[in-house]
Structure formats: structure tokens, C-alpha cells
């Protein structure tokens, strides 16, 4: 069963920063996330909210039980998610990080907590609804994302940005035919800006988003995985979809991407 799941996730790996015991002794866990990505993690007048924030809180509760552990949420840019683990700046990354072959060489991944495909955000006036309409034109993407890799491998001209907000601003200013990212990201921008649209939302294979840890931190990794299974059985993912995801996207995201029954039914 574990081999099946690891093949889904492309593997997991090897050497660590703070162990589970270290975190318990310190009474604090450092979790890296992005603070401007609703409905996943965002700053609402000084309070962090969203699906990944709820996930982090529930995960820590399951990891440490009655022991009081402070969560230190640390804002990280997309390009700094893996380096922040390698440099021991955080203990966990819960920040829309896709499991890829390249990344599993650098960090370990837990079981997934949702899945995505690639989507393309466009200007509504351009009326983009098919992939052939953007063929080999300039695509904006956040540096280091799976969307950048996908379009680069397909031979597109890529213009990279530091973050999604920069890509969207450049798209609206007329640079590029579209902004490529996870379908959850582009649908969010289309939802919040009447000048934008996202009709291409299922490109490429299904990818999995998981908690990332430093290489070799196996005790913490095993504990995170066990906690995720418990959370699934307690219907955390179903409840989070109904309360956080579905209302935000208005039914445009399939529930299966967040309940992950095809993964957790193995347990």
C-alpha cells in the first residue's frame, strides 16, 4: 500500500533539520506558507486564514495532541519554498508545493492534501478558451513552478515573475498571452477580476500538492503522514472543501481534487 502511494507521489527521501523530538522540546514549529493566496492562505487584516492555514492548525493538533506547540507561520515566496527547507528556515512547507521529480531530490513530501492541473489566465477581451489560441505565444509564469516547466518543455517563450500578483499585473498591462499556474490559482484571479478569464483549466497530468520537509526527517514525515490519514478519516478534507473551497470557486473546482478518495481509500 505504501509503495503504491509513494509511486503516486514520485517518491520521498532523506536528511533533516528539526526532528519531531526537537520541535516538542522547543515548543514551537515553523511552517512556511504564502500570505496572499486566497482561499489557501491569506492575510485578513492581520489574521492568517484559508485552507492551508486550517490544514496546518489541524495537522499540528494531530501531531502533538495535548502538548502546547506554538505555530510560527513564516511567509515564503514561491521560489524560496524548497530553499527555506534546505537552509533550515522552516520545519514544514504547506504552500501549494507540487510534488515533482526534481523536488524529491531536494526535499521529502508527505501524502498529498489536494491535487491540481495547469490552468491559463487570460484577458477577458482576448476570448481565450482553447490551447491552440495561445500556441507558442509568450506565457507568463512564476519562476520555479510546474506551469513554467510544462510550457518551457512545450517550446513556449516564457517570461517569469517573482510571484503570481506580478504575473497578473504584467498580463493586464499587455505582456504575454496568458499567465499559467495551478488551475486553483488562475480560477481565483478570474473570480476576483472582471477583466480576466480562465477557461483553460485542465492542462497536463494531475499533480499532487503535499507537505514538504527537509530530506531524511523520517520521524516527522511518518508522523505527518499518520496525521493526514487521521484527518481524512475524520472528514477534514471534505469539510474544508465545503467550507473554504467550494464557496470561493462557485463549483468550478471538482471536489475529487480535495477529498482525494483515490489516495486515502488505500488506508
Intertermini distance: 8 Å
Q: Classify the helix fraction into a percent range.
A: 25-40%
How many discrete structural domains? 2
Count of helical regions:
11
Radius of gyration: 18 Å
Largest sheet, spatial ordering of strands: 9-8-10-7-11
Tell me the total number of β-strands: 11
Task: Report the top-level CATH class of the largest domain.
Answer: Alpha Beta
Family: Belongs to the bacterial solute-binding protein 3 family.
Keywords: Signal, Transport
Domain Solute-binding protein family 3/N-terminal: 28-252
Protein name: ABC transporter, substrate-binding protein, family 3
List keywords for this structure.
3-stranded parallel sheet; D-Maltodextrin-Binding Protein, domain 2; about 270 residues; signal; Bact_solute-bind_prot3; SBP_3_CS; ABC transporter, substrate-binding protein, family 3; alpha/beta
Describe this structure in words.
The chain has 267 residues and is of the alpha/beta class. The protein has two domains: 20-116 and 208-265, Periplasmic binding protein-like II (D-Maltodextrin-Binding Protein, domain 2); 117-205, D-Maltodextrin-Binding Protein, domain 2 (3-Layer(aba) Sandwich), CATH 3.40.190.10. The protein is 37% helix and 27% strand. It contains eleven helices and eleven strands. The chain has helices at residues 2-9, 20-26, 51-64, 81-86, 146-153, 164-172, 183-192, 218-233, 236-249, 256-259, 261-264; strands at residues 28-33, 36-37, 41-44, 47-49, 70-75, 92-93, 107-123, 139-142, 158-161, 178-182, 196-214. The strands form three sheets. A five-stranded mixed beta sheet has the order 9-8-10-7-11, with helices on both faces. A three-stranded parallel beta sheet has the order 5-1-6. Helix 5 (146-153) links the parallel strand 8 and strand 9 (158-161). Helix 3 (51-64) packs across helix 8. The chain is globular and about 55 Å long. Mean pLDDT is 91; it is low at 10-16. Belongs to the bacterial solute-binding protein 3 family. This is ABC transporter, substrate-binding protein, family 3.
Amino acid at each position: 500500500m505504501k509503495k503504491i502511494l509513494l509511486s503516486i507521489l514520485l517518491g520521498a527521501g532523506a536528511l533533516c533539520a528539526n526532528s519531531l523530538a526537537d520541535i516538542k522540546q522547543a515548543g514551537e514549529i515553523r511552517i512556511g506558507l504564502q500570505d496572499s493566496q486566497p482561499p489557501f492562505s491569506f492575510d485578513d487584516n492581520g489574521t492568517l486564514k484559508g485552507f492551508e492555514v486550517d490544514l496546518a492548525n489541524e495537522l499540528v493538533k494531530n501531531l502533538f495532541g495535548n502538548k502546547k506547540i506554538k505555530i510560527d507561520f513564516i511567509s515564503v515566496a514561491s521560489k524560496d519554498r524548497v530553499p527555506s527547507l534546505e537552509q533550515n528556515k522552516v520545519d514544514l512547507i504547506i504552500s501549494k508545493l507540487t510534488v515533482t521529480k526534481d523536488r524529491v531530490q531536494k526535499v521529502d513530501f508527505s501524502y498529498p492534501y489536494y491535487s491540481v492541473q495547469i490552468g491559463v489566465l487570460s484577458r477577458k477581451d482576448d476570448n481565450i478558451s482553447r490551447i491552440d489560441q495561445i500556441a507558442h505565444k509568450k506565457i507568463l509564469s512564476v519562476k520555479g513552478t510546474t506551469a513554467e516547466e510544462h510550457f518551457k518543455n512545450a517550446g513556449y517563450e516564457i517570461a517569469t515573475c517573482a510571484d503570481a500578483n506580478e504575473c497578473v499585473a504584467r498580463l493586464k498591462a499587455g505582456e504575454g498571452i496568458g499567465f499559467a499556474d495551478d488551475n486553483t490559482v488562475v480560477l481565483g484571479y478570474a473570480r476576483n477580476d472582471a477583466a480576466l478569464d480562465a477557461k483553460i483549466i485542465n492542462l497536463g497530468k494531475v499533480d499532487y500538492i503535499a507537505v514538504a520537509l527537509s530530506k531524511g526527517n523520517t520521524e516527522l514525515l511518518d508522523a505527518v503522514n499518520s496525521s493526514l490519514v487521521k484527518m481524512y478519516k475524520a472528514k477534514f478534507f471534505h469539510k474544508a472543501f465545503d467550507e473554504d473551497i467550494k464557496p470561493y470557486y462557485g463549483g468550478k473546482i471538482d471536489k475529487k481534487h480535495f477529498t482525494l478518495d483515490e489516495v486515502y481509500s488505500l488506508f
